[in-house]
Amino acid sequence: MTHPEALIEIKDIHKSFGKFNVLNGIDLTVRKGEAVCIIGPSGSGKSTILRCMNGLMPIDRGTIRVGQHQVHSLKTEKAMRPLRHQVAMVFQQYNLFPHKTALENVMMAPIQVLGHDRAEVEDRARKLLDKVRLGHKADSYPGQLSGGQQQRVAIARALAMQPDVILFDEVTAALDPETVKDVLFNIRELVEEGLTCVLVTHEMGFAREVSHHVCFTDHGKIVEDAPPAEFFANPRDPRTREFLGQVL
Amino acid sequence: MMTAQLSYDAKKKSVLFLLAAAVVVWIIVDAATGGDEHWARVGVRLPLLLTGSGDGWPVTGGFILNVLLSIASMAVATALGTIMGIATLAQRAVIRLPAFLVMNFLRNSPWLVLLFAMLYIIPYEIRVFGMVIPFPPFMKAVIGLALPTAANFSEVIRGAVQSIHSGQWEAARSLGYSTRQIYMHVILPQAFRRMIPGWMNLYALLMIATALATVTGIQDVLTILNTSLAMESERALVYFYLTVLFMFFAYCYPIAVFARRLERAVKGDNI
Ligand SMILES: Nc1ncnc2c1ncn2[C@@H]1O[C@H](COP(=O)(O)OP(=O)(O)O)[C@@H](O)[C@H]1O
Ligand SMILES: [Mg+2]
Question: Residue A78 is part of which domain span?
Fold first, then answer.
């Protein structure tokens, strides 16, 4: 079964750290414009799946295709770079560059990595900061921003690369409850604009409303993959049922 | 009761103050009981100790030579240590492992032994294409002191680079930066701030170690003490040595204090 419009195709990937098998045969397809949520217990390999998608982590077995890139066959950091121009990532700990202002954080990579024109990038960066409603914080350093604000700058930084996909790894997990909704608001906007997103999240309500399908991971396998209505109303796998029973 | 309520800093300050006061009192008492005559000798010979000339000009050695030696060595050590530090961080083992070996060898060698070794390993002059490049003792001292300092500095660099959170690497890699660009734009600018205190501490240590360079025969302050001032009375020499000790202290202590203050400031902005 092939999806001509599938942007990301993951087939039977395996990954182990020493004797410990983190991923035991993951299959996942993400079509263009879809939002896919990955939920599951801590340590079940969610972050590892995302890291494999943009080549931050090499896999042991299986195939990953993102756009025209065969990720599993890219062997060097250098070969990974065109892939990473297309796939942006937002992290739980924001990972902004603390020695640069918010605006510089957003502008750096498009100029230094993509070689875009500075004036054009600054224009784009300011628009993106406005979009995440932080235009007035352009000259603040990350240390002067709240967690939620830093995370929104990180989203603007990812968007500045004009990627085809953004991977979000528990981006609200480190935030205060009040600021979570600001960040989710920005992500929801992106999904509605048709940007392809893969989200690892513990925000069940958000997953239910925003995603096109939801995956449940347990011990390095995707044990359930269904549209949200079905996933939350009639989970088929007992492990999904148990997990949802605990968190809902 | 009172001291129990003082903060650690206040206690430290009062102890230091008492020590300084004790030294001043001792000097005054000693001067009143005949020491003043020896201090007078020190005063007369002070220009010699500082500059290597009895009149204080021209500068041919003395404490100022120690300062020049420390600055020259530090310059060489900074350049060498940066190269060595980057080499020990290299991904390729053929670069990293030899760099590690050299660094650890130099870090664990007694400085005095290295100085002696330079004295015998480096020739008096080198002939390249008919040109004769002389290697005076001063150059040998510079190199001999720079080698262990460079090795220690490379460790400072390594420590600073490795103290940068791994999330910075991940974020930069995910933005498509190359390894070289990550060092240039992300890691080194942050690591640089964290290196400065270690670099300054190292300089203070190096300055102290310049006294060892007397074995190369340069006219540093210790050589002058041992030769030109040998005819002073044995009693007076005690005062001369005290004076030299104080010179080193007065030069190095403020640097160490400033480094410590910077260190505390830098710690504040860790993430
Ligand atoms: N670089 C690594 N080295 C060794 N073990 C790792 C590494 N990264 C992740 N793991 C382990 O793999 C497992 C899955 O990690 P992760 O994908 O981060 O899980 P999740 O994001 O679902 O909580 C965890 O048990 C973790 O300890
Ligand atoms: Mg995780």
Answer: 6-95+163-247
